[in-house]
Amino acid sequence: MENPAAVVKAYFDAWSAKDEVKLRGTLAPGVRFEGVLASVEGVEACVQGLVHGMWKVSPHMTVLHRFVDGDEVLTWFEIRPFDKAPVQVANWSHVENGRITHIRVTFDPRSMLEKR
After folding, report:
1. Residue 66 covered by a domain
2. pLDDT in tens, 17-71
3. In the chain, fewer beta carbons within 10 Å around the N or the C end?
4. From its phi and psi, is residue 110 left (phi > 0), alpha (psi between -120 and 50) or beta?
5. Residue 116 resides in a domain
6. Residue 99, CA distances (Å) to 10, 25, 26, 71, 103 in order
7. Residue 114 covered by a domain
8. Measured between alpha carbons, how far is residue 53 from residues 4, 5, 15, 36, 58 in Å?
């Protein structure tokens, strides 16, 4: 799969399905992740960040739109942390040779960090 949009779609499809094997298949070995709550490097660190982080904090994720500019893919989506309001998220992924090599994520984490 060389098409950057298809690679990123596969990443989010694997995320939605909580499929670690398919998720790993979308990531380059040296993938870098830079986000609001963490920055990590490598497939295992990225997968574990989702499995032990986002998948536990927010069981639901919905892609709202995807913008493609060559090897750069921006996905606008929302997560729904349990009993809290939806959180809007921007994920900027860079794809090379059919794998995601760099992910930058930004969102406002305040509602997720508030105690109820």
Report:
1. yes
2. 999 999 999 999 999 999 988 899 999 999 999 888 888 888 889 999 999 999 9
3. C
4. alpha
5. no
6. 10, 8, 5, 10, 11
7. no
8. 25, 25, 12, 12, 8
Domain, as residue range, for 31: 4-108
Task: Give ∠ CA 72-61-77 in degrees, rounded to 5.
Answer: 40
Bridge-based pairing of strands 72-80 and 87-96 is antiparallel
Residue at 113 is within a domain: no
Q: What CATH number should be reported for the domain holding residue 84?
A: 3.10.450.50
Instruction: Give the number of domains in the chain.
Output: 1
The whole-number average pLDDT for the span 88-105 is 97
**Mean pLDDT over the full length of the chain:** 91
